[in-house]
Amino acid sequence: MASIPASSVPGKGCFTLDGNMDDTYNGEYCQVAMINDQPCYANGAGRYFYYYPGYWQMDYRIQDGSHDWYDGGCIVVDDPGQYLGEYMSGNPFTMTDGCDGETLTMQMGETCGGVWISNHPNYWYNGWYYQDGTWNGYPMFTDGMDAYLYFLDTDGNGDGYWQFDNRAQDGTNDWYDGGYRWCDDIGAADCLYADETGYGVNNFSGNDIEFQWDISDCAMDICSAFQIDHPDWWYTGYYYQDGEWNGYPHFTDGMGAHLYWLESGEGGWWQFDNREQDGTNDWYDGGYRWCDSFDDCGDQEEFETTGQVTAFFNGDNGGDVTFTPVSCTDALIAAEVLGTKSYSTTTVVSGIAVAATGIAAASYYAKSRVEAPFKSGLYA
Question: Is there a single domain that holds both residue 231 and residue 372?
Fold first, then answer.
C-alpha cells in the first residue's frame, strides 16, 4: 500500500477520532486504500486505521494487512461492520480500545453525497463512494481507487444500466466488470432503491448488493431543481439550487449559468447571468423579471393547471422562459447527488423549490445530458 496523504482524498469516507492518549492518532481520517477487504484510513500525521481480522487497529507503518500491528491501539469487533449503524448516524459514538483501555470517540465527517457499498461479491467494489462529477451527463460515483458506479444511457431516453467497472471513461462505453442493473427510467423509485433511512438492496448481475446512502444533514422534503427552456441556448438546461446569494436561493446549471434574486425595495428581480458574484450586482445577461417578492411571482395557478410555468424575461437576450419540474428517484438520494465534488458541497436548501416562478414542488435526481456535452466542449 502506498502512502497517500489524507488531504488528497477530500469528500470520501472520512471521520474524526478523539481520546487516544497518543495525540498523533487523533484527528480527521479519510479512506486511502483497501486492506483485508475493508477501507484503510489515514490522518494528516501519517497514522493508519485499518482492519485486521477481529480488530480495527491503529498503527504508523505502511503494510498490506498481513501484519498484526497496533501501536496506536485496537478495537475488538465481532465483524468489521459492527459499528456501521452508529457511524452512519452521523452522531459521535464511543468505542473501547481493547489494547490500551482507552475510550475513543468517533464521528463520521461531512460526507454528504456518498454511499457505502457492501456485500459485493468482488471485494474490490466494496467501500465508500462519492460523486465525482458526471459521465455522459449522469452522476458518476467512485471510491477514488479506480472503482466506478455509473449510468449507461442506451438510447438517450433515460433508460439504461447502472454499472460497476474499474476503468475510467466518459460513460459511453458498455463496461461492467463489477456487474450491471437495468432501469426502465433513471427517475423510477426502484432504479436504485433506498428506504427512508437511505438503505437499499439492489441486484447487479444476479448479486444482491447493499447500498447505504449518507443522508445525515442531507435529507429534505423536496428537491430544488428544474428544466429551463430559454430563448438563448446558453441558459437552457437543468438547474439545481446551490446555496444562497445575498440570503436568497441561487440556482445554477453547474456550467456557468446562474439564476438569482436581486432585491429592490419591497420587491426585486429574478435575473439570469453568466458571472459568479454574491447576488448584490445588477447583472442580467440572460434577462430579468420583476416579482413582488422572491417567492411570489403570481404563477402558482398556471403551474397547478399545466405543471409548468412560462414567464417573460426582459433584456436583449430575454424572452419567454419555461420552467418545468424534474422528477427524482428519491428525495433522499437526490440530496446525495447534489452534494457533489464537481460543483459544490453546499447542502441544498429545502422549502422554496422554484421561487422564481412560484413552482412549489420541484424535485431533482441528476443533471440532464441535453446541453452539457456541447457547453462543456465549448468552454472546457
Answer: yes
Q: With respect to residue 220, please indicate whether it lies within any of the assigned structural domains.
A: no
Instruction: Indicate the pTM of the whole model.
Output: 0.38
> Can you tell me whether residue 338 is helix, strand or coil?
helix
Q: How far is CA 92 from the centre of its chain?
A: 22
In a domain, 219, yes or no: no
At 158, the amino acid letter reads: G
Final residue in a domain of this structure, among 108, 137, 160: 108
Question: Dihedral through CA 287, CA 324, CA 226, CA 276, nearest 10?
Answer: 0
C-alpha to C-alpha distance for 227 and 87, rounded to whole angstroms:
36
Choosing from 108, 140, 173, the residue where a domain stops is 108
Each residue's pLDDT tens digit, 311-359: 999 999 999 999 876 543 223 333 333 333 222 222 222 222 222 222 2
Question: What are the tens digits of pLDDT across the range 165-199?
Answer: 999 999 999 999 999 999 988 767 788 888 877 78
Strand, helix or coil for residue 24: helix
DSSP, collapsed to helix, strand or coil, labels residue 346 as coil
Distance CA 241, CA 244 (A): 8
Angle in degrees, CA 192, 367, 330, rounded to 5 = 35
- Tell me if 140 sits within 8 A of 167, measured CB to CB: no
Domain limits at 242? 225-379
Instruction: Say if residue 175 is in the same domain as residue 258.
Output: no
Is the CB of residue 297 less than 8 Å from the CB of residue 321?
no
How far is 334 from 352, CA to CA, in rounded Å? 16
* DSSP designation for 350: P
User: Which whole number is the average pLDDT over 106-133?
Assistant: 79
Mean pLDDT calculated for residue range 65-88: 87
